[in-house]
Task: structure prediction
Amino acid sequence: MTTVPVLQFEHVARGYATYVRPVIADVSFAIGRGEVVALLGRNGSGKTTLVNLAMGMLHPDAGTVRLFGLSPTEHPVAVKRRVGYVAEDQMLPPTMTVPEILAFHRAVFPTWDAVLERQLLDRFAFPVRPYPIDVLSKGQARQLALICAVCHRPELLILDEPAGGLDPAARREFLETSIQLLNREGTAILFSSHHMTDVERLGGRVVVLNDGCVALDEPLDALRESHCVAMIPRSSGVSSAAIGEVAGCLHVRGVLGEWHAVFRGPPSAVADLLRGSLHLADISCTSVPLEELFIELLGDERLAGTGAA
Result:
């Protein structure tokens, strides 16, 4: 019996009239029940576009988006009743009070868990008084958005930079609460974040977007253990194209007087492969932290008076 993915993108493309190239060119990946997936990419790489496609706020120009096997634009109510969503710039009605917001969500979601609501309000020491939303602090507004997103026990929780602007302690509390409450019940979680510490603490799998496509899709443990960065002097005469043709190479960029290349494989094996393929002795390969690997994979070239080969 085939299990239907909780969320699936198949050859999805989406552009905007003001851009020459589509923001999303060809993206395919799926998320299963209980998976925690971190969505990474530079600003403008299409993370929020993908989230908006999943939420049915945008239509794809090509390809298909499915949640629980359903189109989010053709079956918006059926899909949204099974999804929780929190975004960095999410706006709750500013003139409504906290009790009014909670009462509205109780009425909308038949699966609303009043016990969980009370637990979260107590955990956050949240003031359930007739305060309008616009007098809450940024942290309190984000906590309220999380309560509204999780208390109906969604099958998929989507977090789009939800902890941006919060201090480190509040950010950690916010994200860990999300994971602890839902992932233990088999809820799938897709979250985007620029904070690599959040990703390393919470993400079970990493999907990296670059140039409108999926540049990397790996379990976090495998990403840590089976990728490395090779540093090759540009003075060796080896071109970036030649390095890119070596098996396992994911990305090459110039950094001052060196080529930095991200490879799939442990450092010792990659170094031996490069020495044999490029006939060079002066090659350094090393494992790097996730944040540095992310920079190497997606960073711009930093050259100092040397022409790119």
